[in-house]
């Protein structure tokens, strides 16, 4: 009976039917416009690679000249773990809803890099730098560059 169970488990793993590790990161910070919030959902393809999506919200502040932004898109994450720390670099592409005096939709690349420190096997805290760029739309170039605190939860 035990041998048959082991063969089934090995067969499921070889066929790719097992669950890949996933992570959810919640980000928060203060930016020139005020409150900045974000989230990442990533699926680990290997210990050094992941892919997933992101969402970011930045507050508007007319006195600072900061527009309200809502950005979302897809990302690839290269990551390496050294002791308790995990360093990562995440290029991606996405859409930005830009609202200052009027509303514009922008499209372009994103870049995020950061470090997290493991609290236990399923959670970590860290810091991330997010850069949002626009290649298409009214505004072009760097749209937002922000540092955000991060809480990450890993699950299967």
Describe the 3D structure.
There is one protein chain. With 156 residues, the protein is mostly beta strands. It has a single domain, classed as Porin. It has one helix and eight strands, in the order H-E-E-E-E-E-E-E-E. The protein has one helix at 2-15, and strands spanning 22-31, 34-46, 49-58, 68-82, 85-99, 103-120, 123-134, 141-155. The chain has an eight-stranded antiparallel beta barrel. The relative contact order is 0.18.
| Percent of residues in β-strands | over 45%
Tell me how many strands there are.
8
Number of domains: 1
Q: Which topology does CATH recognise?
A: Porin
- The level 1 CATH classification is Mainly Beta
- What is the helix tally? 1
Q: How are the strands of the largest sheet arranged? A: 1-2-3-4-5-6-7-8
Mean pLDDT over the full residue set: 87
Characterize the largest beta sheet: strand count, sense, and whether it forms a barrel.
8 strands, antiparallel, barrel
Show unreliable segments. Answer: 3-15
Structural class: mainly beta
Shape: globular
Helices and strands, in order, run as HEEEEEEEE
